[in-house]
Amino acid sequence: QVQLVESGGGSVQTGGSLRLSCVVSGIEVRLYDMGWFHQAPGKQREMVAAITSANVTKYAESVKGRFTMSRDNAKNSVYLQMNSLKPEETGVYYCTAGLVQLGFRGAHWGQGTQVTVFE
User: Which of 12, 13, 63, 104 makes a 20 to 30 Å CA pair with 86?
Assistant: First the structure.
């Protein structure tokens, strides 16, 4: 059974930082493209970062220079370091394992972790 478990969310002031973690079981993260998605209240889920099985990272334009995604194959985990957070980045952050070229359709998903950025 494949499981993705996110953690590290919380409440932070504008400009603050959070580090999200996603621990994966049932598959090897090194063999998959891994992604982080953000779902703001009342909006669709959008990709903010991805790391391919070839270790190429991709970022949404809005987070470039502030967010960093990494992978630790030994821990079968991926991470998202988020700096200089903005109120509009409030929402649920989901970890996913699949294929970035398919937009992670049909991928494995975690349950999400809540991030709240307040003024």
Answer: 104
- How far is it, in rounded angstroms, from Cα 4 to Cα 47? 16
Estimate to the nearest angstrom the gap between the alpha carbon of 21 and the chain centroid: 8
Instruction: Calculate Rg over the CA atoms of the chain.
Output: 13
Contacts of residue 69, defined as CB under 8 A and 6 or more positions apart, other chains included, come to 34, 36, 49, 50, 51, 57, 59, 78, 79, 80, 81
> Which residues on neighbouring strands pair with residue 49, listed in sequence order?
36, 59
Contact 20, 110 (CB under 8 A): no
Determine the Cα–Cα distance for residues 83 and 21; give it in Å rounded to an integer.
15
Each residue's pLDDT tens digit, 52-76:
999 999 999 999 999 999 999 999 9
Can you give the pLDDT at residue 30?
97
Confidence of residue 40 (pLDDT cuts 50, 70, 90): very high
